[in-house]
Amino acid sequence: MKLSNYSSIQEWKKLQLKMPNMKKNILKIASILGLITIAAGSCSDKTQPPLEYFPDMYYSVPYEPLTKAQDPYTDHSNQVPAFSSRNGQTGLGPVEGTISQNKDGVLPSPTPKNTDDYNRLYDKSLQITTSPLDPKNEKKDLERGKILFDHTCAACHGIHGDGQGPIVQSGAYSGVPKYTDREITIGSVHYVLENGRNNMGSFAGQLSPGDRWRVAMYVMHEFKNGSNTPGSSDSASNEESDNTTANTQN
Hints:
Blueprint: H1 2-42, H2 55-58, H3 81-84, H4 115-125, H5 138-152, H6 154-157, H7 166-169, H8 186-195, H9 209-223, H10 232-249
Helix pairs in contact: 4-8, 5-9, 8-9
């Protein structure tokens, strides 16, 4: 029994002596395998890596409102219940209680790209003589248009549209024309509110598309006698004066 224990101790000591060599061999083998892996990876085609971690980080799933979303790296289609119930369409309706930011349903006009485009669209706006808003709400639209004009425009244009608002009267700003001296239509007033003109900036950030039309309606109704023809009131008065002059000379 004692001899057996003695031989076991001797074998254990021999094994302990061999352990450092075994650890060194394992490290050598691991180093060689690591170098081989690095070398193989560096020589491979970089556009087609052999292994991808988190492929959804490389390829984002495109969500088109009216089409079915497909994962580009697998055959798995998006099965989100809200999408599946709409045949895969990802464009969902507003949640309950959502407040519409464009309840009038009026879209902004095309944005001019340069000066020539601005002038072209402005000339085109002069031909617009009606508002896209519901005519049944004209009275309410004019009432709101007055409130918006007084809050937004009267500081320069004046409450009478004569270009003598408080800012102009203070001497801080000048050159604001009278509406009666301008050849405008409801379309051109809306266009200037949306895109600005000369020293006047755009009010698209302060007024919604529908409210811009309401202000334009109010301007035409209050300061142009409800006329929607370019310079109709001015043209009519000029024609009368010209005819009077001609008759006097004759």
